[in-house]
Specification:
Layout lengths: L12 H31 L20 H28 L5 H24 L6 H22 L4
Enzyme class: transferase
InterPro entries: MAPEG-like_dom_sf, Membr-assoc_MAPEG, MGST1-like
Subunit structure: Homotrimer; The trimer binds only one molecule of glutathione.
């Protein structure tokens, strides 16, 4: 009988890679929270009265730098959270290690690139669209493979 490797195990290189990129993306999302807070302090743009550091300040919701980072963070939530679920399910289909590892890398690198070109150093389109669609395409491919693996 051939050696069976547990799919959710550190012995499975696909699962290890998924864990690694998931952890990187969690840290990246934490970084977005910190970047939002940093911009709020730099621009003195606070959304809650209790956060105002001076009676001269007023609650503001319209600083373009803060809003750009918040939009990038929301985009992460809309795209990285599905990756966490779909990526784990994809790992359970026992995919080709080469394909799976490169899909995980594509999602991770493109989500980091998306943040860089959208919220850190603003780069004109199509940079943001390309990075968005690489991650979306990889996650959609994994979701399709999960469905084809007999999810129904």
């Amino acid at each position: 009988m051939p050696l069976q490797i547990e799919l959710i195990s550190l012995n499975n290189e696909v699962f290890r890679c998924f864990m690694g990129w998931s952890a990187v993306l969690v840290l990246k999302m934490f970084g977005m929270s910190l970047l939002t807070g940093l911009w709020r302090f730099i621009t003195l743009t606070f959304a809650n009265p209790e956060d105002l550091m001076s009676p001269k300040l007023k609650v503001k919701f319209d600083d373009p730098n803060v809003e750009r980072v918040r939009r990038a963070h929301r985009n992460d939530l809309e795209n990285i959270l599905p990756f966490f679920i779909v990526g784990l399910l994809y790992t359970l289909t026992n995919p080709s290690a080469f394909i799976a590892i490169n899909l995980f890398r594509a999602v991770g690198i493109s989500r980091i690139a998306h943040t860089l070109v959208y919220a850190v150093v603003v780069v004109p389109q199509p940079a943001r669209a390309l990075s968005f669609f690489v991650a979306l395409g990889a996650t959609a491919y994994m979701a399709l493979q999960v469905i084809l693996a007999g999810a129904f």
